[in-house]
Amino acid sequence: MSFGVLAVHVPLSWFCVGKWGLVGAAASLNFSWVLVVILQYGYIVSGSCKDSWHGFSWSAFTDLLSFLWLSLASAVMLCLEYWIFTILIVFAGLLKNAEVKVDAAAICASVEGWIFMVPAGFLAAISVRVANELGAGNAAAAKFSVWVTVSISVVTQTAFVILILISRNDFPKLFTDDKIVMKEVSNLAVFLCISIFLCGIQPVLSGMAVGAGWQATVAYVNVVTYYIIGLPIGIFMGFKLDWGLKGLWGGLQIGIGLQTIILLIMCWRNDWDKEVQKSKDRVSDDVGSDVERKLIH
Length: 297
Prior knowledge:
Largest sheet: none
Number of strands: 0
Structural class: mainly alpha
Shape: globular
Mean pLDDT: 87
Distance between the termini: 28 Å
């Protein structure tokens, strides 16, 4: 479905951007996202998910407020992570020689965004795996799956880091022919690699938090590490110390590093047997026993 929407999006985006500019780009992107949702909805109601969804019923409204709160906490947690990179580009526009800085920051953010799709897949996978294992009462398997996924993600991200370092003077040519911008991107390659490596660990741990229902806690962690610690340090180093884009990005990486350390400690010190009990307490007796049987099978 995603591939089909991409096939539609490419010519649609070309037409809309050519006709309406930036507004056309936003409109085509929104249309493609809506189309993905419609196709996924059609897939679910077509009967393809009959083992996990049996149609609409009033039971869907049971404890809906708790589910809504969990969803909002997840949204806040993820948005705080995504927004920080956008804020980096915004502040880059306030630096000296802003056009070059913004171009370089945008190129690095694009590269990291592409590579991030790999750990983003791990995020989705580990959140489901942890939730299933906790629901099935397998505390040890939930914890073990987190460390296995972190290890796999670190290996893949390390490969990307090596590739970026080797091609640091060449990959900017994929985005621009401006030699000044290319040189700026090459100078930022080390910072890009640090972010890529950290994003091999952090998304998996965020996925673990989603599966364990820690979204609200991680949202608070993100606020503190990104916006109370990392961003002010980045602004100080970027503007006060006149380190420019490297200073801004360095502060951001301090925030990501702190968040990663905190999540690692949470995972390491967590009582997973207690999390199993919590997962059982979150569902009613009749629904809980049915879900548990399905997950075990």
